[in-house]
Structures are given as C-alpha cells and as structure tokens.
Amino acid sequence: xxxxxxxxxxxxxxxxxxxxxxxxxxxxxxxxxxxxxxxxxxxxxxxxxxxxxxxxxxxxxxxxxxxxxxxxxxxxxxxxxxxxxxxxxxxxxxxxxxxxxxxxxxxxxxxxxxxxxxxxxxxxxxxxxxxxxxxxxxxx
Length: 140
Fold this sequence. Notes:
By secondary structure, this protein is mostly helical. The protein has helices at residues 19-70, 78-81, and strands at residues 108-110, 122-126, 132-134. The protein is rod-shaped, with a radius of gyration of 31 Å.
C-alpha cells in the first residue's frame, strides 16, 4: 500500500458575499424604499382628498332629499344616518358616511349654508395640512 502525502485544497472561487457587499445592497434598498414611499404617500393623500369631494356631493344630495321630505335641511348630519321618522337612512354606513377620511371626526356642517348662499347647507372638512375642502363653489 502506497501512502501519498495530503495536499492542501485551494479554493479558487468565493462561496459567499462579504459583509460589506450585503450592507451596500441593504443601503440601496433602504434608499429606494424611502424615495418611493414619498410618492406613495402623496397619492394616498390625494386619494383621501378625492374621497372628501365625493363624500361632500353624496351628503349634499342626501340633505336635499331630506329637505324635500321634511321641508327644511337636516338639523345635523346625524339626522341623515338616523332619520326621525324611522324610515331608511339617507346615508348608509352609519358614522362612516359622515366621518372624514382622516378619522378626526364628522364633517363640519352649517344648516343655513352661508357659503352656498342659503341654497344648500355647507359641508366641509379641514385636511391635516390645514386646507379647507367644502361643497361650495371654489371650496377646494
């Protein structure tokens, strides 16, 4: 039996990433996520403002239907989700129908409608950025 000497095995290729390479990739991903989140949040805010515009139209239409039935605009927005005569509500979804998208409370309401010249009640909200969005002409 012939015994051969043990030779050292050389690794010619790498089998893993270095810590520095992994950190660089993670840093690139964090930067990309940060940049893209700015755009996503901008569109999210715009979609909430678009929902306000839609909600204000729906609430205004419900107020006008209430006026046709009772002779005057509702005393409050809560009257639209629980009408006094026990019939079906003018707005579905309960408090969600009269709550702004930022969940800070119900839309603001003025029955006499000074911004609308008394033709319909004023309904509005104030965005977290301090902008007023209302159902009157130029209320955006």
